[in-house]
């Protein structure tokens, strides 16, 4: 019996880590899918430590994929601070806009986080439908804005879109990419801004959660299972983001709209 329970736990943690990892980068809401897995499959989420581990795994995957961009904007941003070289200003301002865009989600998360997390399954069905509609509306937009064409207004509006995505079922990547493309950003710029914006939010959430995670009395017991979830989340996040980048290049966002509508309707009907 103990062997069967251990096997079940391994499969459960791997599945949840893979589900979080695969759905985090693509615009179908990872938080919404975890809520659906809990409701329809009867899988109990393992708690705060699990969320911290898998979110950090997704963060590492984003860091690996965008490492060259991060090194470039960091070096040029620091160089601009010290030398004011004109050719480094674009990357410096890109960092500034990322910091500004982080503020709305941080403030709303602190003020309304507990209320938002209590959203039910039916809410996920509705918000998935909304995500699908938003993706469909911008599916053919091309945009003209590069990194150097961004403004304070762009940063704030994308930041508010990210704050809206705190609601389960509203995809974070979907909301920020929709907002960015609606503001006229090119697909490549919208994608880069969206995922570089994910870094400070995810890192901040991880750091703030560390004290609670340390106080988790079950952590020393389940850390091997958390390690399995972490590895699964990292691998699936990495390849899911790579896959999504290819889809963005081909302009196939409409297929995510269809998926969100189908799942949203099924959830509303059967929740």
TrEMBL record:
InterPro entries: UppP (IPR003824). It is found in: Cell membrane. Coiled coil: none annotated. Its main location: membrane. Its EC number is 3.6.1.27. It is a multi-pass membrane protein. Pfam families: BacA. The chain crosses the membrane at residues 47-66, 92-113, 119-138, 190-210, 222-241, 253-270. It catalyses: di-trans,octa-cis-undecaprenyl diphosphate + H2O = di-trans,octa-cis-undecaprenyl phosphate + phosphate + H(+). One of its GO terms (molecular function) is undecaprenyl-diphosphatase activity. Bacitracin is thought to be involved in the inhibition of peptidoglycan synthesis by sequestering undecaprenyl diphosphate, thereby reducing the pool of lipid carrier available. Belongs to the UppP family. Catalyzes the dephosphorylation of undecaprenyl diphosphate (UPP). Confers resistance to bacitracin. This is Undecaprenyl-diphosphatase. The gene is uppP.
